[in-house]
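Work Package 3 (structural annotation) set out to generate three-dimensional models for the target panel prioritized at the project kickoff. During this period the team completed the workflow that converts sequence records into discrete structure tokens, so that structures can be stored uniformly alongside our sequence database. As a representative example, we reproduce one entry of 116 residues exactly as it appears in the project archive.
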Amino acid sequence: QVQLVESGGGLVQAGGSLRLSCVTSGIIFSKTPMGWYRRAPGKQRELVADITSDGSTTYTLSVKGRFTISRDNAKATVYLQMNSLKPEDTSVYYCNVARGWAWRSWGQGTQVTVSS
């Protein structure tokens, strides 16, 4: 079955950095657009960034210039480098398919907490 396993979250001070990883299985990763999503308490899930099979990327305005999404097709893994973190980035972060592809089962996500 499809598995999406996120890791790399933690507690950091404002201005700090984290690198999230998502290891996938059960999908044809090299052909699949991937995204990072986040869901904070009381809010709906939000697409943070995505990356196509060719490496084209998009970002939500609030993280543009601070976050970088990348992928390693050989490892079937997508990454999110998060710099200059702000308290409002605090959320649970998830990976899944993107660009209109049907979502697969969500993983547990990884908690990112940014202190002020």
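The beta strands are 3-7, 10-13, 18-25, 34-39, 46-51, 57-59, 67-72, 77-82, 91-97, 110-115.
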